[in-house]
Amino acid sequence: MKIGVISDVHSNILALEAVFQDIQKRKVDLIVCTGDLVGYGPYPNEVVEFIRKNNILTVMGNYDDAVGYERMICGCDYPDPKDMENAAISLNFTIETLKEENKKFLRQLPYEMILKFEEKSIMFVHGSPRRLNEYLKENSKEAQEVMEDFKYDILVCGHTHIPYVKRYGEKLLVNSGSIGKPKTGSPYANYVILNISQEVDVEICSVNYDYEVVAKEILKNGLPEKFAENIRTGKA
Question: Per-residue pLDDT tens for 83-118?
């Protein structure tokens, strides 16, 4: 069983389309998204409608929750006041731009999903099983705590925008990275493929796309210049 896992699309339809094409070439059996379809980028409706049209299994991200329910904050961790101001601009733009039917879709997304293949149980969440917006960074105290009490075989999350694979005894923690707003130091979209058999193999994939078009569209829509820089550099 091959599962392509995408995450943190963040209103970047060009990255989503490029990754979708790459996944199809690799002949996966299933695609799962670990949330944050919207925010930061200029194409929220296009992304949600692509996910809906292609019946991609998706769990709710903190940004999906904030936009779907039209909250005042997105639930991200921004110690810098300027970043907090930019996040507010992004949230307001996305709430104003997204169609009501697409907001309804976001509100109906589950907080978690549990699937079983080849006797392996897999939980998909956005942040962590404990909180929608908790960061499970590689080798972090939070990740260690979560995996100590984890009752399934594999935990797949997103939210940090940096893909990684970490084993905790017999259990596996996989972060699916970000296709729409990577923080790897590269503008390429990244995602993971889980190959589930008696053993579990995880491949971290990266895909080039025309990110300059997205950067220019960000500026055209009056979104912060830093968002365009993020897209061009893959840096936070």
Answer: 778 989 999 999 999 999 999 999 999 999 999 998
Q: Phi/psi zone of residue 177: left (φ > 0), alpha (ψ -120 to 50 degrees), beta?
A: left
SS3 content of the chain, % helix, strand, coil (to 5): 35, 20, 45
Phi, psi of 13 (to 5 degrees): -70, -35
The 3-state DSSP class for residue 168 equals strand
Q: Return phi, psi of residue 125, to 5°.
A: -140, 170
- pTM, rounded to two decimals: 0.96
Would you say 28 and 3 are in contact if contact means Cβ atoms under 8 Å apart? yes
Q: How many domains is the chain partitioned into structurally?
A: 1
> Which tokens is 55 given?
């019946």
What is the DSSP code string of 102-160?
HHHHHHT--SEEEEEETTEEEEEESS-SS-TT----TT-HHHHHHHHS--SSEEEE-SS
Residue 132's contacts (CB-CB under 8 Å, 6 or more residues apart) are: 60, 61, 62, 65, 75, 111, 125, 126
Query: Which residues, listed in sequence order, are joined to residue 203 by a DSSP beta bridge?
Result: 193
Domain containing 152 equals 2-233
Angle, CA 25 vertex, CA 24 and CA 27 arms, to 5°: 65
Output the domain CATH number for residue 66. 3.60.21.10
